[in-house]
Amino acid sequence: MKAIELINELKAGGSASERTCDTIKAGDAEKELKKVGVSMFGTVEVIRQAKEWGADLLIVHEPLYYNHMDVIGDDPSPVVAAKRALVEECGMVFFRYHDFMHFRDEDRITEGELHYLGLRGRVEKTPYVASYLFTSEEPVTALELAQRMERDLHIAHVRIAGKKDGKSTKIAACFGTPGGVFELLRDENVEIVLTGEAGEWTLGEYARDAAALGMNKALIVMGHIGSERDGMRLLAERLQAAHPEFETRYFECGEVYGYTDTV
Ligand SMILES: [Fe+2]
Ligand SMILES: [Fe+2]
User: Which of 1, 113, 180, 183 is most buried per CB count within 10 Å?
Assistant: First the structure.
């Protein structure tokens, strides 16, 4: 199978605008695939590991160059220049799989996160980009969810603002940095909001005050990587099962921040 054939298969059933970020960032689309790497971020370390393994294609969810469309232009940054040289010299095909991952009947990032969290329930779309309402079959508290994230999603430290011990079923799943996170937090029908990144001085304080005023409301901040990488983990598992003709490996990029007890 050629890289472009797998990419077209990954796009099937999804939708994106003409200005999608889901493009081949480097490499030859016609390359035959023997080894395919999957990661959340194409970090320098992940690229080195994938190259060492002999990957022909690296599928990543996020940009390589710190902006949504991977525009380099005449960026004078030495980091961008050195990373670009690494990307081009390694000979791998790089494909960003973002829009076609999220924008489909079932958002594959949300599906992966809920899958590895072991949560079952109903997922509904909201008016906001890549944010969903999840009704859990099992009532859970924010504390229980955060503990599960640390155990099963391997997030070093999950942060909770607001009520930790309120049994809840109405959960907003706002993985990554999607739209409408504050709107969903303010919605009186939402008890817990899960997100990757959030403004501490607005969303965090809103949740804290809501709980102090007696409301069942919590915000859980998982970190951007911690809140999305399990969608890519599930993708790698599915590619392994569906495509025995090439080898697939998931490359863990790790969380971006370290802590005094993890570094
Ligand atoms: Fe995403
Ligand atoms: Fe993201």
Answer: 113
Ligand 2 centre distance from Cα of residue 77 (Å) = 23
- Nearest partner of 218 among 243, 232, 198, judged by Cα: 198
Pair type for strands 132-140 and 168-174: antiparallel
Does CATH number 3.40.1390.30 belong to domain 108-222?
yes
CB 235 within 8 A of CB 38: yes
Looking at domain 3-102+229-251, its CATH superfamily turns out to be NIF3 (NGG1p interacting factor 3)-like (3.40.1390.30)
Pairing type for strands 35-39 and 57-60 reads parallel
- Cβ burial of 162 (10 Å; 0-12, 13-18, 19+) is buried
Q: How deeply is 177 buried, as exposed, middle or buried, from its count of CB atoms within 10 A (0-12, 13-18, 19+)?
A: middle
Distance 212 CA to ligand 1 centre (A): 32
